[in-house]
Automatic annotation (TrEMBL):
Insertion element IS150 protein InsJ-like helix-turn-helix domain segment(s): 1-42
Organism: mine drainage metagenome
Organism ancestry: unclassified sequences, metagenomes, ecological metagenomes
InterPro entries the record matches: Homeodomain-like_sf (IPR009057), InsJ-like_HTH (IPR055247)
Pfam families with a match to the protein in the record: HTH_28
UniProt protein name: Transposase
Length: 92
């Protein structure tokens, strides 16, 4: 094969990046280098932690103890809770 410097130049990346790829391939196999989706899945606005937090609140409590002006969970109540607890605004 080629040197890591040659590969770096070929792909327009640093030698350090290529070194990381080689290390990862040695540790996890070549499949670890396959192109995949990065970041949150498309269409999601919440992190996994925020989803767990919201699920816990929605399943364990009613809106009124959380100082929301609703007796039951409605879309509007969930939207207000999202803003308050996660800082995320969504339309309904």
């Amino acid at each position: 094969g080629r040197s890591q410097g040659e590969v770096a130049q070929l792909f327009g990346v640093s030698v350090r990046a290529v070194n990381g790829w080689v290390s990862r391939a040695r540790r996890e196999g070549r499949a670890a280098l396959a192109v995949g989706m990065r970041g949150r899945p498309k269409g999601t606005r919440l992190t996994g932690r925020q989803i767990r937090k919201m699920t816990g609140l929605l399943c364990d409590r009613r809106p009124d103890p959380l100082q929301l002006p609703f007796d039951l969970w409605t879309r509007e109540a969930v939207v207000q809770l999202l803003v308050r607890k996660c800082g995320v605004e969504v339309s309904i």
